[in-house]
Amino acid sequence: MHKILIIEDESNIRELISYNLINNNYKVLEAEDGLQGLEMSIREKPDLILLDLMLPGMNGMDLCKELRDRGSKIPIIILTAKNEDIDKVMGLEFGADDYMTKPFSVHELIARIKAVLRRAEQKIEVMHISKGDLTINIERHEVMLNGKEVELSLKEFDLLKTLAENKGMVMTRDKLLDKVWGIDYDGENRTVDVHIRYLRRKLGDEEAEGKYIQTIRGMGYKMP
C-alpha cells in the first residue's frame, strides 16, 4: 500500500483528497502547514507528497527545495490555486514531479498520482539492477556482492552496468566498446576481454559459463 502525505492548510480540501485516496487503497498522512509537512516528510518517508504552495510556516516552494537539497527523491505533485505559468515553472525547477491547479478533478488527481508513482518505481528499477546476490546501484555507482561492496574501476563498473542493462542479450565486443569507451575509441577490441577478465576475478566468476558473465564464442558476452 502506497503512503501519501497531503500538505494542505485548507481542511475541506485535505479531507476531500484524503477520503478519495483512502477509497483508492492508499495510506494517508496529513499536515496542515509547511513546517509540519517538512518534518513528516523526513520522518515518515512517504511514497508521494501532495503539496500546496500557499502554506503557513513554510511555503510549498521552499519546502520542495529543502527536500531536494537534503537529497530526498520523494515524488512531489504541487497543488495550488495559482495558475500563472511562472509558478508552474518554478515548482518544477525546485524539483516537483507534476503540477495541478485548483479546482481539479479528483479522478484526474488519482490518475496523476498513479502515473507519477509508476515513473518513480521504474526509475528505482533502473537505478538498482540485481542479479542473484549481485546488486548494482547506478546512482551511487556502487556494486554489492553478498552484502559486501566490490571495488571496481570506472570502466569495469560501466561494463558491468551495460551487461546488466541488457541482461539476456549478447553484447558484441564492438558494441561494448561503443557503449563503454565511446564510438570514437580506436583501440583494440581485446580491451574488452582484458576488462572482462578483471571484472570476473573481482566477482569470483572466472568461468566462461559464469553466473554473472557468460562468454558467447565468436560473438561476445552476456549476463544470463
Description:
The chain has 224 residues and is α/β, with parallel strands linked by helices. It folds into 2 domains: 3-127, 3-Layer(aba) Sandwich (Rossmann fold); 132-222, Arc Repressor Mutant, subunit A. It has 8 helices and 12 strands. The strands form 3 sheets. The protein has a 5-stranded parallel β-sheet with strand order 2-1-3-4-5, sandwiched between helices. It has a 4-stranded antiparallel β-sheet with strand order 6-7-8-9. Strands 10-12-11 form a 3-stranded antiparallel β-sheet. The chain is elongated, with a radius of gyration of 23 Å.
Q: Span from first to last CA?
A: 32 Å
Number of structural domains: 2
For the secondary structure, the number of strands is 12
Q: Helical stretch count? A: 8
Content of β-strand: 15-25%
Structural class: alpha/beta
Per CATH, the class of the largest domain reads Alpha Beta
Q: Would you identify the regions where 5 or more consecutive residues have pLDDT less than 50?
A: none
Fraction of residues in helix:
40-55%
The side-by-side strand order for the widest beta sheet comes to: 2-1-3-4-5
According to CATH, the fold-level topology of the largest domain is Rossmann fold
CATH architecture group name of the largest domain: 3-Layer(aba) Sandwich
Q: Kindly report the name of the CATH homologous superfamily of the largest domain.
A: Response regulator
Quote the average pLDDT: 87
Spatial shape: elongated
Order of helices and strands: EHEHEHEHEHEEEEHEHHEE
